[in-house]
Design a protein that fits this description.
about 25% strand; 2 domains; binds zinc ion; Jelly Rolls; alpha+beta; about 350 residues; B30.2/SPRY domain-containing protein; SPRY_dom; 7-stranded antiparallel sheet
């Protein structure tokens, strides 16, 4: 009995530590100003290009399980108590052949059966789940979801995917309707491709929650045409040395693209790490002329996030192995051109 209690305590401490690490807020002040269980800070809400909303969530008429406020940006699920799963869908489906990015900030504690962020078709009848507690998104072949517990689910198949998220986390959804892939971001860090083969589906943004008084704030809903610049920026930000070179050589261009594709921009700790590398090393890297070649490897890679922010080890390993690489000048030129 004693050991079980200790184990539970250790698990609780571990969960708490993990959740604390997954906040976007960098200041403890944010968490000292919680009002009625709702986070009051604006962290992550006023970044470049965010605060744009190409669509909004709509709720079913006559439902009291969901309350909108703050110009429909704040969504409160189960305002008094919970008796099942409340579900929300966006007002229109995602346009084909475009990149869509939308993001929600968790402004209350998350707990209970499930709180999920994802996409789903128009065939899901939202009211059917009113009296059932479930992990709704991904329960059938019509929806795809990411749980606050860190799992993803589609067609009743779930797997461990990314980090857990909770109060203070930013959860972004990057839906590439050109390729048909969906990737989540937590606090602007990519979690890797979660789902594929979405191209043939007509899907809407969706949220679901079983937790009483759980609340989220939508911080942006934008879309853009597919561009080589975007793909290249995505590759460049993964490599601190390459990112540093990009910032130093093309500061204006870097500013423009980082503003346009703000969710791809590395988080502050990665930027700091990139800037911390000595200048001499920087020169040597530039002279080897191989930096941009990594574009090809990464553009075609399926496991895009294996080394995402994993860091310098992966980059260094590749450098030591550089003689084995195949040079592809055509793509190198393309990538440089795309960035410029
Ligand atoms: Zn904050």
């Amino acid at each position: 009995m004693y050991f079980r209690s200790c184990e539970r305590q250790r698990a609780n401490v571990k969960n708490k530590a993990e959740l604390l690490a997954n906040r976007y807020c960098s200041s403890e002040v944010c968490f000292s100003e919680i009002k009625d269980g709702i986070l009051q800070c604006k962290c992550g809400e006023n970044d470049a290009m965010s605060n744009k909303f190409e669509w909004k969530f709509v709720k079913e008429e006559n439902t009291s399980d969901i309350v909108f406020s703050n110009e429909n940006k704040d969504i409160l699920f189960h305002p008094t108590y919970s008796h099942g799963t409340a579900v929300l869908r966006g007002e229109k489906p995602f346009a084909k052949n475009r990149h869509h990015y939308w993001e929600v900030k968790m402004i209350s504690s998350l707990y209970g059966t499930d709180v999920m962020v994802g996409v789903g078709s128009a065939n899901i009848r939202l009211a059917d789940w009113k009296y059932q507690f479930c992990s709704l998104l991904g329960l059938d072949g019509q929806s795809w979801g990411y749980s606050y517990k860190g799992n993803i689910q589609h067609d009743q198949l779930g797997r461990k995917y990314g980090v857990k998220y909770g109060m203070g986390s930013l959860v972004g959804v990057h839906l590439d309707m050109w390729r048909g892939t969906l990737e989540y971001y937590v606090n602007r860090r990519p979690m890797g491709t979660a789902f594929r083969n979405l191209k043939r589906h007509e899907v809407y943004p969706m949220l679901s929650s079983t937790a009483a008084k759980s609340a989220v704030r939508i911080t942006c809903a934008v879309s853009t045409e597919p561009t080589l610049q975007m793909y290249c920026l995505k590759v460049v930000v993964k490599k601190p040395a390459l990112y540093r070179e990009f910032k130093q050589e093309m500061p204006q261009i870097a500013r423009i693209y980082e503003k346009k594709y703000f969710w791809i921009r590395p988080t502050i700790d990665i930027q700091t790490r990139a800037l911390a590398v000595p200048k001499r090393q920087n020169k040597r890297e530039r002279s080897d002329g191989l930096n941009f070649l990594t574009c090809e490897e990464n553009l075609t890679s399926d496991s895009e996030t294996e080394d995402v922010y994993g860091g310098l080890e992966a980059t260094n390993r590749k450098k030591s192995d550089k003689n084995k690489r195949i040079r592809s000048l055509g793509l190198e030129d393309d990538c440089v051109f795309a960035i410029v």
